[in-house]
Amino acid sequence: MDPYELLGVDRDADDATIKKAYRKLAREYHPDVNPDPVAQERFKEVSHAYEILSDPQKRAAYDRGGDPFAGAGFGGAGAGFSFTDIMDAFFGGQPGAGTGRGPRPRVRRGQDALIRLDVDLAEAAFGVARELKVDTAVTCETCHGDGAAPGTRPVTCETCGGAGEVAHVQRSFLGEIRTLRPCAACRGFGQTIPDPCRECSGDGRVRTRRTLTVKIPAGVDDGTRVQLAGQGEAGPGGGPAGDLYVEIQVARHPFFTRQGNDLHCSVNVPMTAAALGTVMTLPTLEADLASETSSPDLVTSFELEVRPGTQSGTDQVIRAFGVPGLRGGRGDLIVTVLVDTPTGLDAAQEELLHQLATLRGEEHPTGQLRASSKGVFGRLRDAFNGH
To answer: Average of pLDDT values for 270-290?
Structure first.
């Protein structure tokens, strides 16, 4: 039957029109989609027609009235088409290309690498520069990445002729199906290395330990990853290196905890100081860096004003004493005042407190029940903060 009629195209149809018609019919009549024996026979006819019209030489031979398969090495209706063409009809490839994917490149980008770095809270907050020892693959200096011994070079694979693929033909009810597979001799590269470099055994890379300086920006948090472009694993065949990611792990601080860009801490004050009021000088988070830098901008302490009558659990906000933001600004320092009830009183102290209770009319307090102002999440937060 006329292949133009089978595909439903005009005799002057271009390759794109023929390709589109074949895909449509292949999806309709393929045995995996339509098990009807009539459809299977139709699929073989459509495949045979497409093989003729997709090949310029076979199409020209048919148009001249000759045998399009003369000298092709394959006989019979529906024989000799590539299995790749069938799959491309379903997945949108390039049917009839006949050349497969070709050799895969030997030169490729290297993999990214990940290393974890432990830092203190102050270092994460205000930034730090650290030296890291990293074990990665680097380009072999002996062969400069091509894997061949000095004075030699890779050669074209004799098995696949540099294509990186070899054709395998097998029979099925569809006829002879040709599939392309990576060449086993060259592993799909299209080239072999007769005399591999002794330093890297032909890989083009060697592993080594390097020392890098990484600058951790101010404001990073636990789990933040700092990217060092081009400092990862060297690529095969002398290809570019991947990136190195430094994941920050922030150690727990004895006094301060971080929530966003705010710092939280608590301070214990005597009952008398809470009642009468006082001013306390306390260290900042920056004080942790005092031994490492003598910067005049370093603020190592702040004054906390405890107002008269301050109750236990009162929060006082010290503006802009928190963690610098990665995009500017700075968080606050929230100080929770915890009032200590005196214990171990001697007789004179007890007498003074009795006198105070009498003066305030508090010898026999009745107490009043009140609804809690904190919900479940507030109580959980206080439990974690040790309140």
So the answer is: 95
For residue 55 the two structure tokens come to 């090949």
Q: In this structure, are strands 333-340 and 262-270 parallel, antiparallel, or unpaired?
A: parallel
Residue-by-residue DSSP string for 149-187: PTT---EE-TTTTTSSEEEEEEEETTEEEEEEEE-TTTT
Whether 81 shows a pLDDT value over 70: the answer reads: no
Asked if residue 200 belongs to a known ligand binding site, the reply is yes
DSSP string, 264-305: EEEEEEEHHHHHH-EEEEEE-GGGGGTTT---TT---EEEEE
The number of residues making up the chain comes to 387
Residues 6+ apart with CB under 8 A from 1: 45, 49
183 is known to lie in a ligand binding site: yes
Domain covering 256-363 assigned CATH 3.40.190.10 in the classification? no
Of 101, 73, 87, the C-alpha closest to 23 is 87
Of 70-84, 120-134, 154-168, 363-377, which range is least confident? 70-84
Q: Which of these CATH numbers, 1.10.287.110, 3.40.50.170, 3.40.710.10, 3.30.70.640, describes 3-67?
A: 1.10.287.110
- 265 in a known ligand binding site: no
Task: Decide which of 3.40.640.10, 2.60.260.20, 1.10.10.10, 3.30.1330.60 is the CATH code for 113-154+193-250.
Answer: 2.60.260.20
Q: Could you count the other beta carbons within 10 Å of the beta carbon of residue 222?
A: 14
Residue 18 near residue 94, CB atoms below 8 Å: no
228 Cβ contact list (under 8 Å, min separation 6):
212, 214, 243, 244, 245, 246
With beta carbons less than 8 A apart as the criterion, state whether 122 and 288 touch: yes
